[in-house]
Design a protein that fits this description.
The protein has helices at residues 2-13, 29-35, 53-62, 66-71, 80-92, 106-114, 126-140, 151-167, 183-195, 211-218, 241-247, 259-273, 283-295, 316-326, 343-351, 380-392, 404-413, 438-446, 478-488, 499-504, and strands at 25-27, 38-43, 73-76, 96-100, 118-121, 143-144, 174-178, 200-206, 253-257, 301-306, 330-338, 356-362, 368-376, 397-399, 425-433, 451-458, 464-472, 492-494. With 506 residues, it is of the alpha/beta class. The chain has an eight-stranded antiparallel β-sheet with strand order 14-11-13-12-16-17-15-18. Strands 1-2-10-7-8-9 form a six-stranded mixed β-sheet, sandwiched between helices. A four-stranded parallel β-sheet has the order 5-4-3-6, sandwiched between helices.
């Protein structure tokens, strides 16, 4: 088997550079220091279509006969293979039709159309699109270009490994490779194990789309009933037949990572390279971090394949919010506090000088209130310490850090209309310099004379924090309250006439 792929891969090396570039193998100094290992990044995100996929697509299309080229090509893809096929077909003057899931990020759909291919959006997953593409092949007679289950595609992807070993002839302990259908890891494993068998080849999959992991566990390919689509580039229900045949006896293991761990890896890559990878592109780095933590590894040379960078800009908001949790640098807590003047400030004093990423509170009834708070931490141990401290002060606490519904939905739904009448409520928006402890200092300025009936704060990573506060100020206290506003020294805006407040909060 390896000898057969040796010939195919060498032949692919003579073809793929018509469209592909030899991508750099970059050091990741920040990751290396943090993990106490040498971390290197194989930068396939720097390809012309921002993904390794054009290597295999072009190698396969280059093998077509003139008669097959005249019939045109069809493929199914979540985006990166689609761009590879579209570019390859454009260079060869071949008609291309690409079937893509409706869930494919807009940036990938637009990129394919710009390369001159016809796009058909069908289904919600790669498997839906693949089934429809097969139907179109029967109807049109076009040649199907499989994204991973084809020896020529696999050989094209293997050129990543050829470059890697040429670029780093020194010791490499392990190479971490993202896995969707398995074409990339099959090609790279075939080359690495033939030429440097001492190097571990480790696949990385999302824990909600682990098709290779379950296949290796079962000893046969398994079709997953459901898969997550956050890492859309690897959202595949079943590993390819040919990739599984190749890798089952070659790779060393598969590491599974969570959405939060993927988001943290995207941030790590950005910190070292100022490049933003897509979720599938950051899988390998997430796998390295998990593997190093599990093994207690130090002083090793570990390579991650950054497989793609086709990220919709609007997804960055989600990535940024989940990255801190993935790094265990943020805890999300639901805390019940007594409803009385000054209790909110006392709660903030218990949290102390820790940075606050988010605060959501709305008056509910006369006895107690529920606060949803995000707190900056230095690891899971500090989270446990904080929870224990709060419980020691008799605050009921529920840890929401690993609660998916809370992270996706509840944190944005806290608040709303108060269940009880809130007398004399005034609504103000404040800005203050953002630094640890700034929120507590703001509350200390207020004193204990007025009850806080609404509070919302989110740290946006800016120089200034923004707080929305509802305060119950009886008419007789209005003069003293105005004096507070004048003395606090922060810019403020009265918002009780804002229609958003009147419709949704008052």
């Amino acid at each position: 088997m390896l000898n057969d792929y040796e010939k195919r891969i060498k032949a692919a090396c003579a073809v793929v550079y018509d469209v592909a570039r030899r991508t750099p193998l970059d050091a990741a100094p920040g990751l290396s220091e943090a993990l106490n290992n040498e971390i290197l990044l194989k930068r396939e995100d720097l390809q012309p279509v921002f993904s390794f996929k054009l290597r295999g697509a072009y190698n396969r299309i280059a093998q077509l006969s003139e008669e097959e080229q005249a019939r045109g090509v069809i493929t199914a893809s979540a985006g990166n293979h689609a761009q590879g096929v579209a570019l390859a077909a454009q260079r060869r003057g071949i008609k291309a039709m690409i079937v893509m899931p409706k869930t494919t990020p807009r940036i990938k759909v637009q990129a394919v159309r710009k390369l001159g291919a016809e796009v058909v959006l069908h289904g919600n997953t790669y498997d839906d699109a693949s089934a429809h593409a097969r139907t179109l092949v029967e109807q049109t007679g076009a040649v199907y270009i499989h994204p991973y289950d084809d020896p020529d595609v696999i050989a094209g992807q293997a050129t990543v490994a050829v470059e890697l070993l040429e670029q780093h002839p020194e010791r490499i302990d392990a190479v971490f490779i993202p896995v969707g259908g398995g074409g990339l890891i099959a090609g790279m494993a075939a080359w690495i194990k033939q030429h440097r068998p001492e190097i571990k080849v480790i696949g990385v999959e999302p824990d909600d789309a682990a098709c290779l992991y379950v296949a290796l566990e079962a000893g046969e390919r398994i079709t997953l009933p459901h898969i997550g689509i956050f890492a859309d580039g690897v959202a595949v229900r079943q590993v390819g037949e040919e990739p599984f045949r190749v890798v089952r006896d070659l790779i060393d293991e598969v590491v599974l990572v969570s959405t939060d761990e993927i988001c943290a890896a995207i941030m790590d890559i950005y910190d070292d390279t100022r490049a933003i990878t897509e979720p599938a592109g950051a899988l390998a780095v997430a796998g390295i971090k998990k593997y190093v933590a599990r093994e207690g590894l130090q002083g090793a040379c570990l390579v991650a394949v950054n497989s793609g960078a086709n990220m919709n800009f609007d997804r960055l908001r989600h990535v940024a919010e989940r990255a801190e949790i993935g790094e265990q640098r943020e805890a999300l807590l639901a805390v019940t506090i007594p409803e009385r003047p000054g209790s909110f400030r006392e709660f903030c004093k218990t949290i102390g000088e820790r940075g606050i990423t988010e605060f959501n509170y709305r008056y509910s009834d006369a006895s107690e209130a529920h606060v949803f708070v995000g707190v900056q931490l230095n690891g899971s141990a500090e989270r446990e310490e904080l929870i224990a401290k709060l419980k020691g002060r008799d605050y009921p606490v529920v840890d929401m850090t690993d609660n998916e519904m809370a992270k996706i939905h509840v944190r944005y739904m806290v608040g709303g209309h108060s269940a009880a009448m809130v007398d004399h409520e005034q609504l103000y928006r404040f800005e203050f310099p953002e630094r640890p402890g700034a929120l507590l200092r703001f509350l200390k300025h207020m004193g204990q004379g007025w009850n806080i009936s609404l509070f919302h704060y989110r740290n946006h990573g800016a120089a200034y924090g923004r707080v929305l506060v509802g305060i119950q100020v009886p008419p007789a206290e209005q003069g003293r309250f105005q004096a507070f506003l004048d003395e606090v020294g922060y810019p403020y805006w009265a918002e009780q006439d804002n229609p958003a407040y009147q419709l949704f909060l008052s």
